[in-house]
Amino acid sequence: MAGMADCYRGEDIISNILEEKRLDSEQNEIDLSNFSFTPHSPIIIRGNEGFSNYNFTGTGEEETPYTIEFLNITQAAILIDIQDTSVHFKIENCFLDGLNGNKVVIYLNNVENAFIGNSTILNGFNGLEVLYSNEVTVSRNLFYHNTKYGIYLIDSSITNLVELNDFIQNNLQGVYSAYDNTNRTIIRNNFWETDSGWYSFEGNYNFDKQPQISPVNPTLIHYLSRPTVLFPNDRYDNVYGTEYVRWFTAFDSKGHEVYYDVYLSDDAGSTWEQLATELMNTTYIWNSSIYPNGEFYRIKIRAGCAEGLIVEDMSNDNIRLGYYGMFGFNSTLANLFLLLVIIRVKKKIKKSSKKII
Q: CA dihedral in degrees (282, 288, 290, 291; nearest 10)?
């Protein structure tokens, strides 16, 4: 019992630390649109003394951290690379553009006491990589259009916190917006381009238990979030007759009205038939009974706005169309017939058993 009590006390200590971090992140909430940025070259820091090579404010103490702020770093390179530090530092209110998606935007390795907040982090390979680090808070950032993950966390401690961030159009060839192989980072209240956010972290089953339903941060970028298909979305969604095609709202960062087009494919996405155009809501009544039964249909939702931005999402798998009863056939009569056959076979088996006795 003593071991269990110690475990709970440890969780309380961590919870208190994270609550302090949360309050700090709320106090640091700033509207980026009110400020201008200073162009800057990539930043490379090795060890605590590396901060002295730059004219940053702060001393590295908890109350006066080194502060990297209001910078525009735009280059096809690692934009901020900090390793082997224990002093307190902040990266906040910055615009960090990796241009071609080939390099990590922010790379932290073996650091402590870091805060990354109120920044736009885009067009990198991974937007932020955190390795072998602890006491790292990532709050109120936009991770946008990074080729792989918005955040990549590996072998990090339990006192790292990821909250109130927006993850938009990351992982251009996959599903997950972030990666954490430790399953110990606290992840909460972020916005993900999925229906719930539960599956937006890959690695060791970590997920956001309290996802936001819409973006939470101001941004200088005009974007549309993807209109994630909700139903029908995979081979287990049995579609029969009149069904409601449903998708998740696409959010326009500039507040424009968003319209939706609905498409159907019978060849796994090679060609598409338009079912509806310029819908203003997130449902479409589809009469699927006019299409032949099959397992090769896919739904695609395309969202657009008045300024011409277009994003789309396709169902994850081929959709089963038609009534498929308990035995997998698409005919009610076929299922009843097979059931009668099974009953007759069972009766014959029983009679045979009695004769043997």
A: 110
